[in-house]
Amino acid sequence: MRIAVVGGGPAGLYLSILMKRADPAHEITVHERNAPGATFGWGVVFSEETLGALRDADLESHTQITDAFAAWNAIEIRHGGHVVRSRGHAFSAISRKLLLEILQRRALALGVELRFEDEVGDDLPDAHLVVGADGVNSIVRARHADAFGPSVKPFPSRFVWFGTDLVFDAFTFVFRETEHGFFQVHAYPFDADTSTFIVECNEATWQRAELDKRSEEETIAFCEDLFAEELGGHRLLSNRSIWLSFLDVRNRSWHHENVVLMGDAAHTAHFTIGSGTKLALEDAIGLANAFVRHPGDVRAALVEYETERQPVVERFQQAATDSAGYFENVSRYGGFHPLQFGFNLLTRSGRITYTNLALRDPHFIRQLDAWFTGDAGALIAPPPMFAPLELAGLTLPNRVVQAPVGEAAEPDGRPGEGDAARLREAAGSGAGLVLTGLVAASPEGRTTPRCPAIHDEAQQRVWAEIVRAVHEAGARIVLQLGHAGRRASTRPREQGADLPLRQGGWPLLAASPLPYTDRSPVPKAMGAADMKRVREAFAAAAGRAADAGFDGLELDLAHGHLLAGFLSPLTNRREDEYGGTLENRLRYPLAVLDAVRERWPADRLLAVRLSATDWARRGSGPEEAVEVARALAGRGAGLIDVVAGQTVAESRAEYRRGFLTALGDRIRSEAGVPTLVGGHLTTADEINTAVGAGRADLCVLETQAIAPRTGVRW
Ligand SMILES: Cc1cc2nc3c(=O)[nH]c(=O)nc-3n(C[C@H](O)[C@H](O)[C@H](O)COP(=O)(O)OP(=O)(O)OC[C@H]3O[C@@H](n4cnc5c(N)ncnc54)[C@H](O)[C@@H]3O)c2cc1C
Questions:
Q1: Mean pLDDT, the chain, as a whole number?
Q2: Which one of 396, 456, 501, 672 is most buried, counting C-beta atoms within 10 A?
Q3: Measured CA distances, 622 to 8, 27, 223, 414 (Å)
Q4: pTM
């Protein structure tokens, strides 16, 4: 087979080696626009698992690469005058230049033709297989853009990739707070004399520091000055080192006819997880193996390569995006204790969790546990999940919340035996806090005829019994008080979501007369009298919840229900003082909160459930949610229960595991209010990680998702 490889970076060179090894009869030409020794960047990092794959694919180059490695096992985090070190992380790094030299030598030895200073233009070489391994600005990708469907977007941060003659002994992160904002360094050794030294900041900081106006020399001088303490007289070395924005590259498809993309041409993963070269090399392994399985069948091999590699790469891209987001917003965590700051950094992309770190570095986790429970000297302390929490007058024994779902109320709105049983079971689970489902503040506020309510004496009495039972089981209980608004009067959930009642429906109320689905009735836009009546109903219900003995009250401003309907521009089209600006849209929900607060004891927790994003075009997003959370906290909300979506029926949900943690993290750190998050958290590890890293204060553990599968009872 005649193979033309465009690009002599790690991807193209390694593929040519593996293809030649697999079949020496292949005629392989690598077209590289640069001269042999000319490349960008300094050292690149590898993890242990990559190395295993390289050894199996080509022992010869693996041996040469690993012989040249600088290896270490510590990560050091310097911030605010503190230094935190974590050990047990196996890293290796190599100079990019040396890596390319090794791969070039190996390719030549196997008989690959390397054509340097040979820039491929719009006319791609003629071959049985054309490989686009030409990096982030790939010409091959551009040539067949219609077929590949690329998306190329800059991350909103800037970086400059230096070397330095200071040899670090750990992967070192340095954070420096300046008048312009946070700058951070990612530094690690890659040979006996040199380290990589990448300086990064977010776009706003970069603009404020006017770094766009500085030349290469001035940039070096700026960075040397900023990190003079760490550099200790050592120099920063430039290799065409200028400020860049990292490009996020994705492609709908990686192949078209006999043309295939690999490495950065196909996908990038933000450099803060140091995986681009690894992914490029693994692409080469995947592609070469596909040809071993389908010799001479280009189409079958390319389909297999893409099917196998795309999901793997997407997982890395998600981790890389989370990691990049962490560094963009790291100033949020500037006030954290050094240990928590470090733990937050180490767990930023989800690839290291509490449990992983406990294995890698038990000492670090012991210190974190001790600090978290408030006894820095303790040798043995419970993990963050089991640390008690004091919250607005409520003392919780641990950070786990059970929020059982289901509605089983009597026709008159009294909670049914099914509701009571679920809450009692949740209370006996060991969770510190139990949260009810939506409890209606008025008859027309019920979601379905099975939705429990708390607007009369009889309902209050049953709730009081449930509260007693929960307390006897050792847990605390919070009532979620709401009004379903335009999502009211529907059939029970098990018959389908948001299906209007066939019979016995009741009139709906909402901020604006917009039905929830095509089949939903049109709600009445609330007038002044409706607003007064509903506000008073909420206040009266809050008084009843207090009398029933609830430990906390959670006001529902979520999921497209009545009060949430005022918040979102998608569902609030009012032209009076309750619509338009965010300040106006907040007016009615805040008025209800005020009314509730007057009837709710000052020494008990008042929480709010808030949709942090509408997940819909032109809807509210996390930025607005932070503003809302701030306003709510300013009016007495001591906890935000963060949820997402369902504002409009057509919202585009992103229900990946732990999907609420990042949203909650943002609200917690930017609005400065404690948060409760769920989002399919099913393990202690996820809760220990989120709580220990300061991303949440309380977490809903989804035990229902686990129990039926294990089937174990004792
Ligand atoms: C700051 C920074 C730090 C990084 N750190 C790490 C790290 O620690 N670990 C890690 O694994 N990865 C790291 N990466 C990512 C890594 O550099 C890339 O993912 C990797 O180089 C991708 O390899 P590639 O072969 O696909 O592309 P490249 O390495 O970009 O190679 C593409 C080649 O194609 C050539 N070319 C381009 N166009 C043409 C043309 N028209 N004709 C001929 N030749 C052409 C180029 O000259 C180049 O040699 C980092 C990246 C950055 C920006």
A1: 94
A2: 396
A3: 42, 54, 33, 36
A4: 0.92
